[in-house]
Records
---
Amino acid sequence: MTERPPHHGPDGRFRIPWPLEVADQRSGGSIFRWQWERMRNRRAPNPPPEQVPVVPHAVAMPRAGDEIRVTWVGHASFLVQAGGLNLLTDPHWSRRASPSQRIGPARFQEPGIPFDELPPVDAVLLSHDHYDHLDRATVERLRDRFGAGLRWITPLAYRAWFGDLGVTNVTELDWWGETKIGEIAVTCAPAQHWTRRRLKEMNDRLWASYALRLADGRGIYFGGDSGYFRGYEEIGRRLGPFDVVMLPIGAYDPRWFMAPAHMNPEEAVRAYRELGGRGAFVAMHWGTFRLTDEDPLEPPVRTRAAWADARLSERDLHILRHGETLVVEG
Ligand code: ZN
Ligand code: ZN
């Protein structure tokens, strides 16, 4: 008999094995208090596009050589060119991170790579089902462009959702589960977060981060969405070290509500160290959609300060602009 993984509760839903129960923070009362505070407190305005500019990308066509190329499309979407493959993370090319394209958070500017300029994509890594990470229209565009056989790597319980869109090449992984994309070993790793797309769903699907190991030994980590948690040390120990670490630095205020599910810049720098980051820190999850209450331009400022406080090398910190490509030579 196989044992239930620790993150399945008795009701079959996913639970976090760490002390914080994020789901408890999502009660109606908490959401009401957050929205009430939002109405009373004046917030910084949305940044004009020139403050979060799109710059020309340096995507290798059709594929990179020995170098690793990471291009920020925006939010949690990257094109990762490594190991002779082109991978996307949490791809989002739509105007809004929302169930409706009429209301909901709209992007501050265009995606860093125009959709039509994408090179052939070999596989997509998905961290979880929130609308700023899993965008139905983008899934359909990728299906239409690259075929229904385009491979998706997801945490547990996504196959049916993709199947409804005619996307069938889905590899579901539990935490610590492994698969291969070409020569790249992919391990699904924990994160401290939650999932929900519809009102009645709550943690019906798993959330995750991913660790990639190239054939030449280099490591890449994609953090997805996560609060700071003690799992980073374990991920570093089991799957590190990492030459490229993509971590979220935005969507953290107010702390009383967001801390379990979204780390702040100081925590992101701490996570990088605990993961065994030995190269590039690549910032994500800021400057694209306004989801929470902090000034949208604050995350990079605080990240740079936390980086300096930790006496880490300035050349390893990469707060990319939209479309900017980081090149890590092989
Ligand atoms: Zn999320
Ligand atoms: Zn998110």
Note: The chain has eight helices and 14 strands.
---
Amino acid sequence: MPPSRMVEVVENGRRDAMGLRKVDSRASITEADDLDLARLPDRPRIKIERKRSFDERSLSEHLAGGSLRQVDSVESIFSLGGLRSVLDSPSSLGHHSFEPHPMFAEAWDALRKSIVLFRSQPVGTIAALDHTSEEVLNYDQVFVRDFVPSAMAFLMNGENDIVKNFLLKTLHLQGWEKRIDRFKLGEGVMPASFKVRHDPIRKNDNLTADFGESAIGRVAPVDSGFWWIILLRAYTKATGDMTLAESPECQRGMRLILALCLSEGFETFPTLLCADGCSMIDRRMVGQTFDSASLYCRALLTKPISQGVYGYPIEIQALFFMSLRCALSMLKQDSEGKEFIERIVKRLHALSYHMRNYFWLDFQQLNVIYRYKTEEYSHTAVNKFNVIPDSIPDWIFDFMPNRGGYFIGNVSPARMDFRWFALGNCIAILSSLATPEQSAAIMDLLEERWEELVGEMPLKIAYPALEGHEWRIVTGCDPKNTRWSYHNGGSWPVLLWLFTAACIKTGRPQIAQRAIDLAESRLSKDGWPEYYDGKTGRYVGKQARKFQTWSIAGYLVAKMMLEDPSHLGMISLEEDRAMKPPVKRSASWTI
Ligand code: GLC
């Protein structure tokens, strides 16, 4: 880090013409982050106060049995060449003057209108403020996952209280006894959503929460607890206020979440086995996909299809990994925390190995699977999960570019779901579950398959869509999830913020800019829909809400992050040396 590096501290709390506060990303980036972000061209001088009060504690540090003092994390992902394309690219941020688009002010306005008060305190944002829709369903609630981009926008704007209140309110809800019929749920389960009800007679506000008992499908939201931990770290990074994370309540809340997902059972894999529909894709969708012409599928179709599809969805595995790393940086090494720290360290090791080996797919690996032998026994097996090559869907052979790769949707015994899922892959980049080479390969894929994965409206939630028999089997004939709609190949503007963060981390902000330009051409005109339909995302979703808060917040966060990439530290973790891959498998692995 050159000592002469320009550091401009901006007064915290100053507001600009739009009423937005200029925020210094206090303690929001590690020193290694500084170094590389400084190299982004044509960006305003970065506002960094070089306080290092909350850097990540690296896994290597824990492994070495070191004290919990903050140490420099390992080398930055950027320094491994991630910035290549920014520096090489003629179309990098040069054209981008950071002039606020008129949509930016409109989005802030809409975001503020979605704020929910509880006893006069802001505690979250409702899912959608759609006055045109008669069917409110549960869109008038504060969803934990939906609030994350809102929270990021508020934190980037120095409005920290709403985030703190939300974290405390949901922590309080975690403490409730949760039942579905006669079954008591685990203590650590966080709600999917909560609702503030105003009692006009008593002039009081009351809370109700949904832990899955009201949700369609009655599935507990596995992702809520993970997002809660990730948000707690983002809050701490953005504010420099460690007292919240260090409070006994938050420490306990974290431990309860971790106890749920680190418990021992009959597992032979370090991944987390989940019911379908336990994340953003909250309906049956995350199962396995087969080419309908394949022999295996034909065999399957002769059998009655009654049970739901369970598995190891990438969306959850990536969030699991990220939340473990976030928790590791915040847990106290006291008598109770210590045991969890040890379990996290071991799990992270095993999880990164498993994911990087068995979920990773690129051209070379596809060729290996294509030539798999089956029925192999013992530890010498190459085809460890006995995947039958006939079950590889046809589309993947054309889709897979020579350059690029990604983490596939699901891997379990004899089952591979080859579909692309955007959230899991972006989180894999941000959490450094993906190695720097894999991260670059994911971005290569996005560039090579832009039409399919971004199209006319960023970003496809999953690709490709399930049709015909597959749609019947996997979605259970779900009319909301018809091909190229909603979770089944629909395009979700909210994903823009995660995509932008991944682009910045891999040194390709110009790609994020391209996606933002697409969003700016339609989002406001179309009334900020929840999702778009069609192969290229051209049509406003069949049942999409308008003024969907996370579409609005996702856009704001993407804009603010691109304007000031130092915000990236809130949602990004560097690679940890202790998790370096022990094996080299194909081109996109090569260091
Ligand atoms: C839908 C989405 C879910 C989201 C909720 C509220 O159910 O599938 O991810 O949290 O709407 O917006």
Note: The pocket of alpha-D-glucopyranose is lined by residues 127, 143, 145-146, 280, 282 (CB under 6 Å).
